[in-house]
Amino acid sequence: MINTIIKTLILDKSIRLYFTDNTKMLQEIMELSTIKDKTCCFALAKAVSILSLLSAALKDNQRISLVITLTNKNHKIYADTDAGGNVRGYVSQALLKASRQQNSNHSLQDLIGTKASIRMMKGLEMSQFTGVTDMPYQNMDDDFAYYFKQSEQTDTMIQTNIELDRNSCLLKSYGIYAQALPGAEEGALDFVREQFEAENLASLLLNMNDAEIEKALNQRFYRSKVLEHKPIQFSCSCSKEMFYGFLYSLSAEELQKAVEASTSIDTTCHICGRSYVFHPSEIQTILQTR
Q: 112-147 pLDDT, tens per residue?
């Protein structure tokens, strides 16, 4: 059940519980990001993992756009998703540049800092709700739970597990999202958290089929039910054609120099990190059509 969100209701339909193994999707995003600093990789992976879980709560053409502004206001993490489970994430050029100068000795708390904020826009293109909160916990998971409590007055639990190797390559990622619905008993979400933390329950459930999941959930949370599976996948709409405009913005002299030197011009999508190379013959064509 990789790259699939499993949607369930537990405790007599009073808690929505989603969980996923999104390792493959995140590996694709992280490989494209070109981030070398381990803490920066960790932060981006957490943000994207959380947003992928939130995609399961969207309907029709709804989407969520996320901006995390770190204490250094030029350092930002972006992610967005839609009801179809299309997810992407990237960091600002300033943060990308800074990450290449870091030595990975700093912590996630240090990277976030004391004056960071979460800004989320949710809804349809012409009708969006925007919420902004600070990040008092400096650990992403609890900060997003705090966001829902402050902006939507909803008790929420978010847990993401990200494993990176010494080279900052992503080895494993899974996440849990639980939210109290109207009628939930006081303390119900705390009970859910305790059960998951005591047994490492998420990793157990992700290796079960639906019948086994329902049985395991009902043993711990009465009247639980698996609702559906929702796919999630990395998606970026960039293409080589989109970057022709950049080449047309260069002067004829710059383009001519590249042609005469038989030098290619490399362009990079700042959203997904994918590179597009324009060879001298393509540059010559652009010169001829200016």
A: 999 999 999 998 877 788 999 999 999 999 999 999
Number of Cβ within 10 Å of residue 114's Cβ equals: 10
Instruction: Single out the residue of 31, 7, 95, 6 nearest to residue 273, CA to CA.
Output: 31
Name the strands in the sheet holding 76-82, side by side, starting at the edge strand that comes first in the sequence. 127-134, 117-124, 63-69, 76-82, 86-91, 233-234
Distances (CA, A) of 3 to 7, 23, 173, 206: 13, 7, 10, 11
- For residue 96, give the nearest of 24, 166, 30, 22 by alpha carbon: 30
Q: Specify the pTM.
A: 0.85
pLDDT in tens, 136-176: 999 999 999 999 999 989 999 999 999 999 888 999 999 99
Residue with tokens 């405790």: 11
pLDDT of residue 270: 72
Q: In this structure, what token pair is assigned to residue 266?
A: 């490399």
Task: Check: CB of residue 111 under 8 Å from CB of residue 40.
Answer: yes
For residue 164, list its beta bridge partners.
170
